[in-house]
Records
---
Amino acid sequence: MLYQLSYTPPPSRRSGDIAAVPGRRKRRSPGRIALVERGAARQSCRMKRAAILLILPPLLGGCLARTAIDVVTLPVRAVGQGVDWATTSQDEADRNRGRELRRQEERDAKERRRAEREERRRARDDADEPR
């Protein structure tokens, strides 16, 4: 069997963990060096990977299927959206025509009010003018 040296660094200490004594220096504990059986470490890693690979597909199955459907239907949706933007439906045409008629009526009413004001002003100026 093959063995491998494994080094575990010492635990890090934050300044708030242990009260510091002024003027004294803290001693750090050394890291750990150990002989680890190389095959066992590799096997435990394989076991973890296998467990993850066995757990993920049922959890992500719907997600992967949904993604595949989205990828397949994307070109169809893009073409449909392009056609929708390029053409005008009957509802949109009716709505646009009604909007244009209302705007034209507003312009006509504004012009009519302006003409009536102008007519009243002319009639007033004619009445005020001496003959």
Note: The chain has two domains: 1-11+27-74, 88-131.
---
Amino acid sequence: MQFEVNRQEFRDTRAVPCPPAELAPGQIRLSVERFALPGPRPEFFFVPSQIAKRSEEWGAAELTKRIAQAWHKLVDDTGRWLSVVHRTGSEEIEAVYRDLLEGQADPAIGYVASMWEQSNCSPVGRMDV
């Protein structure tokens, strides 16, 4: 299976489409020249391949430790700049969606949306090292 980008579809945008997640890197044919983006040339980055590479280089225990440390740093820092706001029901979710579409959403707010009227969402947890 091959994934190819229709360049007309992305002519006036800087968005580079993401291929379907089930495709492996060797199956993806994406020509970055089609996008003519300014700056450094984009290169393909596939997370599962990178994780396998780092696991081999560092060992599974060290990789897990580093991921946990990075996660702790991110979570600890988010309280400084990110507010989590819960929205429930179709009307509230639609309002958030419209704000996002119109560019009116505050980037310092992370929305947790649920179609259930009462949300049992908990804050982001920490990973044990």
Note: The beta strands are 83-88, 109-114.
---
Amino acid sequence: MRRIACLAALAAMLLTTTSALAQDRGRTVFLDTVYGVLTGAIVGGALTLTTDKPGDHLAWVGVGAAVGAVGGAVYGMYETTAMAELDDHGELRLAMPTVMFRNRGRSLEPSVDVLRVRF
């Protein structure tokens, strides 16, 4: 469980590190993820203090950080994603997720693009 939590936190940090140099949208997602990790680690550490033997529950800090990373990334994506925007010609465009099917050999694989961040 500890390995999964650590790998999830590491993956979240590595996957969003490149967005730190991006425009405002990528920076917002990155900062929200970092704040989520810090908040989750603090909450996990505080919860270990509520047990009789805190040393036996130190994995809660990692789990809290991983949950915070996912929560912060999701919040950052929600915060920066506009469902409607005006284009250069003044026309209203709605950003709705579209299901696409990609050809993978003899089968079709469905996929949905949920987030597009400009780098």
Note: The CA atoms of residues 98 and 112 lie 6 Å apart.
